[in-house]
Design goal:
76% helix; 265 residues
């Protein structure tokens, strides 16, 4: 059995990522004096954003792309997990406040960003997109056309960045949720994904025909690989949302304890 897996040289993919990086470096470099006079070059944030772009290429441009598109739904779920839970927060972590504010608060954009970045909207949009994404009529075309596949990933990355905004925002006009609300938000996200997890994991037939007759990358049937992919999706989501849940909980607990100690002093 021959497995075809290679690095992607799609000019749209490479050109898009290169353009995004150049625009970012221009904003935090030569244009910094206009956007934030006197601000130092944001080394840490530039490193996060650059690493996010590199990670995006590894997700969409490495041999993982072929393995996901041609052979294994589990590898495809790995792609989606990395895109949603690794790449998206890395890119957000790389945005200085003085870059994000003009983008979100420009006169024509302000009402749109207010609506789209409301926590209820980000929760619903991501959860719906996550579920709709896995409907066979939408999922299957991406398995036979790399351009559609990359485009879907770009759209999903946008929804994923919206998802993380209420937890990571540095823009006071579009603030983070309060700690308690963040915990509710993170706790509810895996619950919202349960229907699609159950549909993929417990289906008694192969949902995506492209995988049914593909060479087996793993020592599993196509149906077993599909069940594994659903389980992986569920566990990955619980880990991705569970880790920040624990961190936020203990940070909130420490702050409340310090506040009460100061009040009783």
């Amino acid at each position: 059995m021959v497995i075809y897996a290679s690095w992607q040289t799609d000019p749209v993919l490479i050109g898009g990522l290169f353009t995004a990086l150049v625009v970012y470096l221009l904003a935090v470099g030569p244009l910094r004096a206009r956007l934030a006079p006197g601000a130092p070059f944001p080394k840490r944030q530039a490193a996060w954003f650059s690493a996010g772009i590199a990670a995006m290429y590894l997700v969409d441009g490495s041999p993982l792309h072929d393995l996901a598109e041609r052979y294994s739904l589990t590898m495809h779920m790995l792609q989606h997990t990395l895109l949603s839970y690794v790449v998206a927060p890395m890119l957000l972590a790389g945005l200085p406040r003085w870059v994000a504010r003009p983008l979100l608060l420009a006169p024509g954009v302000r009402p749109v960003s207010r609506a789209l970045l409301h926590p209820v909207v980000t929760f619903v949009v991501f959860s719906l997109a996550f579920s709709i994404w896995h409907l066979p009529p939408i999922y299957n075309p991406a398995l036979t056309n790399s351009f559609i596949h990359h485009t879907q990933h770009l759209v999903f990355l946008t929804f994923s960045m919206m998802l993380w905004w209420p937890l990571m925002s540095l823009v006071p006009e579009r603030p983070r949720l309060a700690p308690g609300a963040q915990l509710v938000y993170l706790f509810s996200l895996p619950i919202a994904q349960l229907p699609v997890f159950a549909a993929v994991t417990f289906s008694d037939y192969v949902l995506y025909p492209a995988y049914e007759h593909a060479p087996r990358l793993l020592p599993l049937t196509a149906l077993q690989d599909q069940a594994l992919s659903g389980a992986f999706m569920n566990v990955a989501g619980q880990i991705a949302f569970g880790i920040p849940f624990v961190i936020i909980f203990f940070h909130w607990f420490r702050l409340e304890r310090e506040r009460r100690a100061d009040a009783n002093a």
